[in-house]
Structures are given as structure tokens and as C-alpha cells.
């Protein structure tokens, strides 16, 4: 079992061993330990005693030689909240903020220390790491950091010193801001005020001259996560205040005020450049997944020039990411690459693509040509095969990934000009039935105009045989495959083999409709 010191609340409890030696032994044996109390390595009381001793050493001017190792030990101990109550108290947090050089003005109105005084040291870096753990494990500590004026200090250090800060330190500052802004509208509002102006700082962090290396992936992830918080949480505050003004629709199909989203417009070109340039060994992993997620908060219409600056490159890039991701999945099993929750990471990409296609007809045409080409193989079930189209159609009825299923169906529906008849004509009614039922479009729309509308009659749209184009073999209306019966529709004119094929198709259709809840099949009594 890993070493853990006995209760050392007093010097006599150390058994003659000095604190430096105790910490050194602890670090040597516990550098990768994530649990102490739960693993039986320490009791809650012995761990709390060690935490108190370390905090005293960190805050004492007589213990400067052990401050860095003591902070490292606190960082390791804070991986598990049990036994860290002293570290989570205001006094403990202020001790860490002081060592990180982030202790600013209190909520009473005192001015924070000027960022020009910040000087990175091993002590400040280790204190930042410890603070990140504390804010992650104990969310109420985030309020203490805000009350101590540290949010403004962090924002101003990043604003004034970003060119001289190492990427690792920038990462730690952004991680703190990300954690502090979770569900905290007041902090978001403060970070957008002119003296902090975090969006402008983000642009500077992302925009590197050609002679400088691109920001590391971990830093990009933290920036994207923080920007997402600012845009999503801050917008809730704007709505609560009932602001009035022109509105726009984001790629996530959410209505927001143009004045609000314009606060972040200078970040958008940098995000798009990152999207086009970021190569990932695996699809939809950070930072790429966070880049895509952040795009959800932007509308295309007012920023068409930024989105389509390089023509439809962004559309092709998104389609390539989607293709790479789907090639690693099994639609029927919902299988995903190791460490990837497909039902969580894929929908944001699909929603972004749907938003772009919905708001720009040229982008929609390019996307449709890549994802829904006219010349798909209809000689076999449409959801079989390795093409991106086959995989998308397979996900239309994949029960194990409901979020992916809904997002895929919505994307294909948008690519069909939000016309139910076009969707059914392309995929067959069997694949589209669940989606149409959820949207209240089980019967073909009558009349013209509107999403899903059309002038075709019911028999034309859902007849016994049809084809999407004016030429070519007739298609089975249920499966979308070539109709092997040719033009015959009379049951009596079929061979026994053809009758068996039709019966099998009906069983498959009933099974799909039963699973999607459209109908409930019961055995006869």
C-alpha cells in the first residue's frame, strides 16, 4: 500500500521526521494516486490532518523551502474531495490565490493587484494547478474566487501579458475561467466589460503570426470551452433582462439577439481557421470536438462572409469529419472508438451541418451532393455498405443512439429542402417513418409551400412504386430499393419466391415501426 503519513497536526506527531522528508516520501509514492480515503490508504481524519499541515506550511513565511512540494502534495490530495474540507474553506482558497498571485480586491470594492506585478514562478504555477483541482471538486469554491477579485486579475493578466505567458500557464488560467463561468451569469457579464474584454483576449490567443507555432490542442480546448460558456450562459442573462433588438438564428436553431452574438464576431474567423487546419488522429476528439461545439452558438446569416470566405471549404471539411467518424462506427450497434460516447460527441457536428444547410442554399447543395448523391446503390438495402450515405441511413433507425438518430434524420430532412416527400423518395418510407411520426408528418402534406410541403398527391408520394428521378427502375416505396417485381403489383401474378420476398419486407417494416413506436404489433390471441 502507498505511503501516507500519520497524523502530524503537531511537530511531535512527525516522529522526529521533518516535514520536508515526509512530503518527499509522500510525493515519491503517490504521484499518480487519485484516491486515498476510498482506497483505504488513509482515513478521512488523517488526510484532513495532513491537508491542514500542508496549508500551514504553504502560508508560513518560515517554510519557503517546502512551499512548492507542499502545493504539489495538496494538488494530489485534492484529486479526491473527501478529507479536503480545510482546503475548500475560504482561508484555504485565499492561501492558494495568494501563492498564485491572483488575490485581488474583495467584493467590498478594493482594486485588484495590477497584472504588471505578476511574475510566473514554480510556486505560482503549482498553486494554479491546485486551484484547478479545488474548483473542479468543490464548485462552491468558485464563488470564493470571484469574491476575492481573482476573476478580474486573471482576465487582466491574460489581456496584458498573453504574449509573455507560456502556453501551459495560459491553459491553467483558461481552465480556471472555464470552471468559474459554469452557470455564473454575473461572472460572464464581468468578463465582457471593457476593462476585462475576454473575447478580444481570446482572439489574440488564437491568432498567431506565421513565425509562431499554433496554440497547443489542450489550450485550444480550454479556450473553446470558455467561449462556449460565455456565449451560452451570457445569452440566458440577456434573455432574462428581456432585451429588445434584432434577432438571428444560430446553427443550433436558437433565436438570439444580434447585439449579443456580435460581441464574439471577431472570434469566429479564428475558430473557422482552426476547424479547417486541425488534424486529428481520431475523429471528433478534443480540440476538434470543442471547436465544433462552439460553432453551435453562432448564426450563419450575418457572418456568411466568415463562414464561406473560402467558398464551401467549411462544408467539405465538416463532411470529411463526419465521414471519418461514421467509418469508425457501427450504426446497428452504436459502437464507437475507444473512449468516445458517440451519442454525445456526434450530434453537435450534425446540428452544425444542419444549421449551415438550413441557412445557405449553396452550402446545402454541396452538402447534399456529398452526403446524398443521386447515384446510390439501390440494388441492396440502403443501410448496408461502407458509404457515408449508407451509414447515415443506417443511423435513421439506430435505437441505441437516440440523439444521433434524431440529428441524422434532421440533417437529411434539411438536405431534402425540409420536404417529407423528397426524404421518403430518397430513403424509403421504412427508414423515415419514425422521424416523420415524431414530427407529425405520417401522411404526406397536401398543397404547396412550407417545410415538407409539396403538390404531389398521396398516391404519388407513397404509392406502390416510385423513383426519385424521372428515369430509371421503379423503386420499392418501403425500402427505397429497386423494385424486383418490375411493373407488376398484382399478388396473383407473382411467383412463390416473389411472394416470400414481399412478406419478408413487410415483416421487416413492421419490426421497424414497432421499435420506433409508430405502431405496436401484437400477436393474435
Would you mind describing this structure in some detail?
InterPro entries: ARM-like, ARM-type_fold, Chaperone_Ric-8_A/B, Gua_nucleotide_exch_fac_Ric8. The chain is mainly alpha-helical and 525 residues long. The protein contains 25 helices and two strands. Helix content is 53%, strand content 1%. Strands 1-2 form a two-stranded antiparallel sheet. Strand 1 and strand 2 form a beta hairpin.
Q: Give the C-alpha Rg.
A: 29 Å
Shape: elongated
Q: In percent, how much strand structure appears in the residues?
A: under 5%
Low-confidence stretches: 443-467
Provide the helix percentage: 40-55%
- List the strand order in the largest sheet: 1-2
Keywords:
chaperone, 1% strand, cytoplasm, G-protein alpha-subunit binding, mainly alpha, Chaperone_Ric-8_A/B, single chain, two-stranded antiparallel ribbon, 525 residues, guanyl-nucleotide exchange factor activity
In short:
This protein is mainly alpha-helical and 525 residues long. 53% of the residues lie in helices and 1% in strands.
Element layout with pairings:
Blueprint: H1 19-30, H2 44-59, H3 67-77, H4 85-88, H5 90-99, H6 122-137, H7 141-147, H8 150-161, H9 167-180, H10 185-191, H11 198-206, H12 217-240, E1 247-249, E2 255-257, H13 258-261, H14 268-277, H15 288-295, H16 304-307, H17 313-327, H18 342-359, H19 361-371, H20 388-395, H21 402-415, H22 420-427, H23 429-438, H24 458-462, H25 496-515
Antiparallel strand pairs: 1-2
Helix pairs in contact: 1-3, 2-3, 3-6, 5-6, 6-9, 8-9, 9-12, 10-12, 12-15, 14-15, 15-18, 17-18, 18-19, 18-21, 22-23
Amino acid at each position: 500500500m502507498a505511503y501516507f503519513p500519520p497524523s502530524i497536526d503537531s511537530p511531535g506527531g512527525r516522529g522526529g521526521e521533518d516535514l520536508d522528508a515526509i512530503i518527499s516520501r509522500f510525493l515519491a509514492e503517490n504521484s499518480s494516486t487519485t484516491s486515498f480515503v476510498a482506497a483505504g490508504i488513509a482515513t478521512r481524519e488523517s488526510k484532513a490532518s495532513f491537508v491542514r499541515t500542508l496549508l500551514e506550511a504553504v502560508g508560513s513565511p518560515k517554510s519557503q523551502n517546502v512551499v512548492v512540494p507542499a502545493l504539489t502534495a495538496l494538488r494530489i490530495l485534492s484529486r479526491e474531495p473527501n478529507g479536503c474540507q480545510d482546503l475548500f474553506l475560504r482561508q484555504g482558497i485565499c492561501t492558494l490565490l495568494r501563492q498564485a498571485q491572483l488575490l485581488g480586491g474583495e467584493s467590498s470594492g478594493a482594486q485588484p493587484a495590477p497584472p504588471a506585478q505578476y511574475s510566473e514562478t514554480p510556486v505560482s504555477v503549482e498553486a494554479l494547478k491546485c486551484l484547478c483541482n479545488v474548483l473542479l471538486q468543490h464548485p462552491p469554491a468558485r464563488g470564493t474566487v470571484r469574491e476575492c477579485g481573482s476573476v478580474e486579475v486573471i482576465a487582466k493578466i491574460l489581456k496584458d501579458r498573453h504574449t509573455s505567458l507560456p502556453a501551459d500557464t495560459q491553459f491553467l488560467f483558461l481552465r480556471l475561467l472555464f470552471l468559474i463561468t459554469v452557470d455564473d451569469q454575473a461572472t460572464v457579464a464581468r468578463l465582457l466589460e471593457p476593462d476585462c474584454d475576454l473575447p478580444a483576449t481570446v482572439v489574440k490567443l488564437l491568432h498567431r503570426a506565421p513565425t509562431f507555432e499554433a496554440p497547443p490542442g489542450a489550450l485550444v480546448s480550454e479556450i473553446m470551452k470558455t467561449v462556449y460558456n460565455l456565449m451560452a450562459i451570457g445569452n440566458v442573462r440577456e434573455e432574462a433582462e428581456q432585451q429588445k433588438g434584432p434577432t438571428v438564428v444560430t446553427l443550433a436553431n436558437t433565436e438570439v439577439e444580434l447585439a449579443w452574438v456580435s460581441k464574439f464576431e471577431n472570434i469566429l474567423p479564428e475558430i473557422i481557421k482552426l476547424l479547417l487546419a486541425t488534424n486529428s488522429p481520431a475523429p471528433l476528439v478534443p480540440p476538434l470536438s470543442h471547436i465544433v461545439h462552439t460553432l453551435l452558438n453562432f448564426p450563419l446569416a450575418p457572418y456568411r462572409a466568415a463562414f464561406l470566405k473560402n467558398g464551401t471549404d467549411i462544408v467539405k471539411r465538416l463532411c470529411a469529419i463526419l465521414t471519418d467518424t461514421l467509418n469508425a462506427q457501427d450504426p446497428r450497434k452504436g459502437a464507437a472508438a475507444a473512449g468516445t460516447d458517440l451519442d454525445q460527441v456526434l450530434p453537435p457536428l450534425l446540428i452544425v451541418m444542419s444549421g449551415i444547410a438550413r441557412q445557405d442554399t449553396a452550402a446545402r447543395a454541396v452538402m447534399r451532393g456529398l452526403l446524398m448523391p443521386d447515384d446510390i446503390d439501390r440494388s441492396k438495402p440502403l443501410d448496408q455498405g461502407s458509404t457515408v450515405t449508407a451509414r447515415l441511413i443506417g443511423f435513421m433507425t439506430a435505437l441505441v443512439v437516440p440523439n444521433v438518430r434524431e440529428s441524422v434524420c434532421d440533417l437529411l430532412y434539411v438536405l431534402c429542402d425540409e420536404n417529407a416527400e423528397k426524404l421518403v423518395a430518397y430513403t424509403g418510407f421504412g427508414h423515415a417513418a419514425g422521424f416523420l411520426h415524431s414530427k407529425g408528418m405520417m401522411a404526406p402534406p397536401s398543397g404547396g409551400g412550407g417545410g415538407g410541403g409539396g403538390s404531389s398527391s398521396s398516391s404519388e408520394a407513397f404509392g406502390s412504386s416510385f423513383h426519385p428521378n424521372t428515369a430509371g427502375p421503379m423503386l420499392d416505396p418501403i425500402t427505397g430499393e429497386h423494385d424486383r417485381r418490375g411493373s407488376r403489383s398484382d399478388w396473383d401474378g407473382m411467383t412463390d419466391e416473389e411472394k416470400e420476398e414481399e412478406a419478408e419486407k413487410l415483416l421487416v417494416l413492421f419490426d421497424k415501426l414497432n421499435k420506433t413506436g409508430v405502431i405496436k404489433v401484437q400477436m393474435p390471441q
